[in-house]
Every structure is written in structure tokens, then in C-alpha cells.
Specification:
Oligomer: single chain
Strand order of the largest sheet: 1-9-8-5-4-2-3-13
Structural class: alpha/beta
Number of domains: 2
Strand content: 5-15%
Bound molecules: pyridoxal-5'-phosphate
CATH superfamily of the largest domain: Type I PLP-dependent aspartate aminotransferase-like (Major domain)
Helix content: 25-40%
Radius of gyration: 21 Å
Order of helices and strands: HHEHEHEHEHEEEEEHHHEEEHEHEH
Amino acid sequence: MKSKIWLSSPHMGGGELKYVQEAFDQNWVAPLGKNVDEFEVSIQNYIGEDKLVAALSSGTAALHLALIQLGVGPGDEVICQSFTFSASANPIKYLGATPVFVDSDKKNWNMSPAYLEEAIQDRIKNNKKPKAVIVVHLYGMPAMMDELGAICEKYEIPLVEDSAEALGSTYKDRKCGTFGEFAILSFNGNKIITTSGGGALVISTKEQKDKTIFLSTQARDNAPHYQHSEIGYNYRLSNISAGIGRGQMEVLDNRVQKRREINVFYKELFSNIEAVDVFSETDSDFFSNHWLTSITLNGSSKKTNHDLMSAFAEQNIETRPLWKPMHLQPVFKDCPYYGETVSEDLFGAGLCLPSGSNLTNDDKNRLYDVISNYEF
Ligand SMILES: *Cc1c(COP(=O)(O)O)cnc(C)c1O
């Protein structure tokens, strides 16, 4: 059996162990320390726009703390892109609130501005003004931030960016993760860079950063004993994980470049296969890190995405259908939904292809063989 080609696997840069060793040497084996501080600074410098960053145990934890700070509570509603991973919506439920799901734009795949406005107007009519809007940059593709931002501003609803898949992507030359009042990043093992597990909250003010640290370290009041006047969480990032993150930040630009090269490889490979469309930027305002290159079968072939997935699996190559929209998930079946079948159709026709920055030439040859021998 040939070795497995993964969709997206960790890709160490070489500098990580030095920072981990430093933490051991100084015995800062704890969820705080120099690596945590320096990791935060390196992300801040990378994304710019005077944003502050709090390193946390996961992207999901970051979203939870964002929604808490936006005052989301039991009975509230929060608008969320339907076409995403469940972690974009779960924290809404942690708080006893209800997700209101919105369909995607056909070309951009992220939240449709038209459906967003329809949803907001209808919820306001029901006397339930949404507390926040969660927009996702799926597979690294920046969402339509001008349009979505303008709608959020018009109705005075805070925008939260789920930028878990989009570190290094830009919209109109501005980094994803700097548009919302809050944004989340993820450093899970399959993301463009990893801390083995971890995330960050991108924050606009010093007060919000202090509050985020406070909430993520068990909400300890300023007293010599342990005193609490709020419910806290244990969400801070480990200093060991942050050491990995520091090393990964040093190679982030290279990782973005590599994934974009893989996207070009697929584009060329599929260029004369009529049945397949490679998901691409619509114009130069959008710069995707191409975390995962995704394709859709456009109906000019009788084959399904599952047929193609099997052909890859036979060669020990991992592929995966696109995210199943949240409004179709059993756990969210009773939540309101605005839109048509854009995300549902993408789910039915699409496939994510191996896109790791550590893909070798030998791997590419194996991918080439499967695709060029497949009868679409
Ligand atoms: C990975 C991911 C998350 C969650 O991040 P974790 O660090 O795994 O908690 C949230 N949203 C999207 C779109 C993701 O891909």
C-alpha cells in the first residue's frame, strides 16, 4: 500500500522545537509565559490594522468568548453562515441562544449579502434583532466584506469573522481577521499553520483584550484570595503550544505560497476537464490562502463527487465532501434559515482535494495519475 496522502497535515518549519525547548529550560510549562506573549505579538504584527490578539486553547473557545463579550445570552439570536464547520455555530448554542442560518453566494461560497439582509429584516420584524453576525472565510476564500460590512453597519449589528481557515488571506489588500469587531483564528492540526491545537481571538481594544484574558483564566477578581464575580473559563493557550506557534509564524508566508501553488497545479490539471470547476477567486480583490483547494462537478458528467472520492481512496488519497450546511444538520434542524439551495448544491457536488503545503512531487504525480486516468 502506498503511503497516505492527507487532505492537510501538520508541516513543521524547523524553528518550533527551539521555542518549546526554551519553555522547558525556563520551566514555563503552563498556560502562560514568553511563548504565549511572543506568539500573540507575531500574529498582531502579521495581520496589522492595530489589532490585538489573545492566544486561546481553540478557535471554538475564541468564538465563545467573542459572543460572551457581545452580550449573547439565553433567548438571543445570532446570524451565522450555514455553509461552514459546526464550530462556527456551536458556541451560539453554548450560550443558550439560537443560530439563524444564512445561505451562501453562488460564486464566493461565503455568506450572501442579499440573504443576510433578508434575514435581518425578517428577524427584526419578529422583534428579535440579531445580537451578532458570524461570517466565515471558507477554505481561505475571503467573504464579500464590503457588502456584508455595510449591511451590519446599517442595522448596527456587530460582525464576527470566523477566520479559522483564512490566516494569510486578504480582501482588498487587508488581512482576513481584521474586519470584524472580533475575529477568530484556529491553529488546529489541519489548518494552514498549527500549534497542535489552539486558536486566537482578534480584538479591537485593550479593554476587550483584558476582558478576554480575564474570562479565559477563570475570571479571577483582583484579590489576594481566589474571588469570582463572574463565570470563567479555562481557555488560555499552553506555553508549549505557543512555542510551536512561534516557529510556525516564521514560515507562514511560505505556507500560503505553497498552498497557492497547489491550487495552480490543480487548475492546470483540470483545465481541459469540462466536468470540473476549480473554486477560484472571482477577481483581484480576493486573495485566498487556498487552505483547501475545492472542486465541484458541474453536471456535464454522470459521475458524482462520491464516485471521485472513491477513486482517490483506492489510491490511499484522502479527499472530503464540502462542508454539509448547518441548516441541514440534525442538531440544528429547528433553527431559522434564509436562502435557497446554494450551499446545499455545493455540498452535493463538491470535493476538497489534498492541499497540504508538504505535498511532495511524488504525491502530485499520484494525484495527477488519478485525475488524468479518471473517466469523468
Ligand atoms: C477549524 C475551524 C473552527 C474551529 O477551530 P478549532 O481551533 O478547531 O476549535 C471554526 N470554524 C471553522 C470554519 C473552522 O474550519
